């Protein structure tokens, strides 16, 4: 039986944004073990995600424990791999893989009743959230609702709950969800990834290097440790 929406969001911890982490660093608090501190003045890791993608969810719960500076970039996963989940065999194989990874990571994974879906409403709100500095908090809240509780992010009530957990007011959430102008940065981000050969989410960018897929988080972490990684510029 599914728990309440608010319980699903709250059960996995606080929705801390990067500004809070920076404040903790300035206070001299220690960096959690295993995180790579690329320095607050360095180019952040680009983390491209879709709140309706289970593999993005698996990374969203871990990426800020790996890197001290993360730029959260919403991307419509369907624009990269329109047929990835189509067909019973492909869909079953991907679900099984996601379930195995969730078990290995000791993270809950509950499938929404309507999956996969376009998820455009949640993506549009993710664009708005990034614009107002609430991108990480909304991404975490939305992905937890979808894959910890199995809630449909296209349902306005569920979307509003995710937005409220991130500090976004109801009116702003509904306006963003219906604003087709928010599709423009989503499409631009997808085109940029495709231009660099990225056809899978989540994706990580550091310097001139891009890493695609949940399984490549560790590889991206290793690359960030390289002396030259922090001196290179992300491709536009």
The CATH C-level class name:
Alpha Beta
* Structure class: alpha+beta
Number of domains: 1
Spatial strand order of the main sheet: 2-1-3-4
From the spread of the alpha carbons, the general shape counts as globular
Strand fraction: 5-15%
Please outline the major beta sheet.
Answer: 4 strands, mixed
What is the CATH third-level topology name?
Glutaredoxin
Q: Which H/E pattern describes the elements?
A: HHEHHEHHHHHHHEEH
Gross CATH architecture? 3-Layer(aba) Sandwich
Mean pLDDT: 80
- The N- and C-terminal alpha carbons lie at a distance of 45 Å
Number of strands: 4
Describe the overall structure.
With 236 residues, the chain is α+β, with helices and mostly antiparallel strands. It has one domain: Glutaredoxin. The protein has helices at residues 5-10, 18-26, 54-60, 63-66, 77-80, 88-105, 120-131, 135-148, 156-165, 170-177, 183-195, 217-225, and strands at 45-49, 70-74, 203-206, 209-212. The chain has a four-stranded mixed beta sheet. A hairpin with a 2-residue loop joins β3 (203-206) and β4. α3 (54-60) crosses α8, α7 runs antiparallel to α8 and α7 crosses α10. The radius of gyration is 17 Å and the shape is globular.
């Amino acid at each position: 039986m599914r728990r309440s929406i608010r319980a699903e969001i709250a059960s996995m911890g606080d929705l801390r944004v990067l500004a809070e982490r920076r404040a903790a660093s300035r206070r001299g608090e220690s960096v959690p073990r295993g995180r790579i501190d690329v320095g607050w003045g360095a180019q952040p890791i680009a983390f491209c995600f879709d709140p309706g993608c289970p593999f993005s969810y698996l990374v969203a719960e871990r990426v800020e424990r790996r890197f001290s500076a993360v730029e959260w970039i919403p991307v419509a996963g369907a624009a990269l791999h329109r047929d990835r989940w189509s067909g019973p065999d492909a869909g079953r194989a991907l679900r099984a893989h996601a379930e195995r990874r969730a078990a290995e990571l000791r993270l809950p994974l509950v499938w929404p009743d309507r999956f996969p879906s376009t998820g455009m409403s949640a993506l549009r709100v993710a664009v708005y959230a990034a614009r107002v500095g609430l991108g990480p908090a909304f991404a975490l809240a939305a992905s937890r609702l979808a894959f910890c509780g199995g809630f449909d992010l296209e349902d306005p009530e569920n979307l509003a709950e995710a937005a409220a957990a991130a500090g976004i007011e109801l009116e702003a959430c509904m306006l963003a969800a219906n604003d087709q102008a928010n599709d423009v940065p989503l499409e631009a981000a997808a085109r940029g990834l495709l231009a660099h050969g990225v056809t899978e989410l989540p994706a990580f960018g550091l310097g001139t290097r891009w890493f695609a897929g949940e399984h490549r988080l560790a590889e991206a972490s290793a690359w960030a440790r390289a002396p030259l990684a922090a001196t290179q510029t992300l491709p536009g």
